[in-house]
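From the methods appendix. Each design record in this collection lists the tokenized structure first, followed by the designed amino acid sequence. Records were kept in a plain field format so they could be parsed without special tools. The example shown here is representative of the layout used throughout.

RECORD:
FOLD TOKENS (407 positions):
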């Protein structure tokens, strides 16, 4: 028997057993009383933990602190705020992040190094520590608090990004759950994005396996979305595994490993696609698949370049079947290709075959581009490499949002 997973209706980060979450209005993001902007995720037992962080050479203080605290592959709580990135503040930023961890540790009865910290919002502004201190004290984590935590991490997001799956491991020995929440709508580009993602599981897992599984899931999900070509100093994807399910510890190549990896990938893909769909000002999700590449790495690069092309994104927004923009973006991606072997499809409509343009029904092409989800497939016909990337269209609203972000 192989592992099987099923989505959990209304699932969130507290769906896995033993996890608690809560959020409050601290006043960091907005004076509006219903604007949640500070939250805590915790569990009563120590967790195996892993994280993947920004590739930007400018790293926010919370990222630096998390990397330090995860050196022992352990954590038991996360404190997160929105409205202030705590980035580019120098030593004060790190001191503030350390104080946030210490305050939360005292509240939860933990050691500071067991607490991870995350922030999102405007860069170059110091955390209002008075508000943060009061906010932490007001948070009361509970099993029902996952949805509030998902709200508290949003900035320009237009909807919450949360999900959970339940997994029956091999031979039906144990049932585990994996849940997650994420935020992100702008400054999104491989590798990672201006995103925060927190994942939980009640499975017992071996630390090295968890790190490998997380990296593998991130590579095919969060590292394959693009909104605007920018990355953030705050990008963080963190997973906590508390082992409450009582299953035999999952190790690389061992029983349950494949099912766990598949379920974790499912959660990450759902959240990543939700971020791409919610790109600032977006009206459409663009899905670009490149197959037949010499390697998977080349397919990944080609798909990401096409999905991130401003000209492709603008054409999709206007439902303009100007497919030459897709091929031009592919051509500058550096992917090995032979022009006479390339096929291009807009959903099932073939626009180019063997490197040559085909006559096509423009109204049919326009109707595909009018959809909320626009699938593009490029066949290189050179090898077995395949990959899919997700992006969104480029609208006037994107410019409006980002020209008024701090005003």
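DESIGN:
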């Amino acid at each position: 028997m192989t592992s099987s997973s099923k989505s959990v209706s209304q699932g969130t980060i507290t769906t896995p057993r033993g996890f608690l979450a809560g959020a409050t209005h601290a006043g960091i993001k907005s004076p509006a009383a219903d604007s949640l902007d500070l939250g805590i995720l915790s569990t009563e037992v120590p967790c195996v933990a892993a994280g993947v962080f920004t590739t930007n050479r400018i790293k926010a203080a919370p990222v630096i602190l998390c990397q330090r605290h995860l050196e022992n592959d352990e954590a038991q709580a996360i404190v997160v705020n929105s409205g202030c990135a705590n980035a580019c503040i120098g030593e004060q930023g790190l001191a503030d992040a350390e104080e946030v961890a210490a305050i939360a540790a005292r509240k939860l009865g933990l050691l500071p190094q067991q607490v991870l910290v995350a922030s999102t919002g405007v860069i170059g502004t110091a955390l209002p520590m008075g508000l943060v201190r009061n906010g932490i004290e007001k948070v009361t984590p509970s099993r029902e608090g996952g949805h509030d935590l998902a709200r508290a991490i949003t900035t320009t997001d237009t909807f919450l990004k949360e999900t959970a799956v339940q997994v029956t491991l091999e031979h039906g020995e144990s049932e585990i759950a994996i849940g997650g929440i994420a935020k992100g709508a702008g400054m999104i580009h491989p590798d990672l994005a201006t995103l925060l993602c927190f994942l939980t599981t009640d499975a017992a897992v071996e630390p090295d396996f968890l790190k490998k599984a997380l990296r593998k899931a991130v590579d095919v999900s969060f590292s394959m979305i693009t909104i605007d070509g920018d990355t953030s100093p705050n990008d963080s994807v963190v997973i906590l595994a508390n082992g409450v399910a009582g299953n035999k510890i999952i190790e690389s190549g061992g029983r349950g490993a494949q099912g766990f990896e598949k379920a974790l990938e499912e959660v990450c893909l759902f959240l990543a696609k939700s971020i791409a769909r919610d790109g600032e000002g977006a009206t459409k999700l663009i899905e670009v698949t490149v197959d037949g590449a010499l390697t998977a790495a080349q397919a990944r690069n080609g798909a990401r370049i096409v999905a991130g092309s401003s000209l492709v994104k603008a054409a999709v927004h206007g439902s303009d079947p100007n497919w030459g923009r897709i091929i031009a973006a592919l051509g500058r991606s550096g992917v090995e290709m032979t022009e006479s072997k390339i096929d291009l499809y807009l959903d099932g409509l073939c626009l180019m075959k063997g490197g040559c343009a085909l006559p096509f029904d423009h109204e049919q092409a326009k109707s595909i581009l009018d959809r909320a989800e626009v699938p593009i497939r490029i066949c290189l016909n050179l090898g077995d490499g395949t990959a899919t990337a997700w992006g969104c269209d480029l609208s006037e609203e994107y410019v409006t949002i980002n020209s008024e972000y701090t005003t």
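APPENDIX NOTE: DSSP finds eleven helices and 15 strands in the chain.
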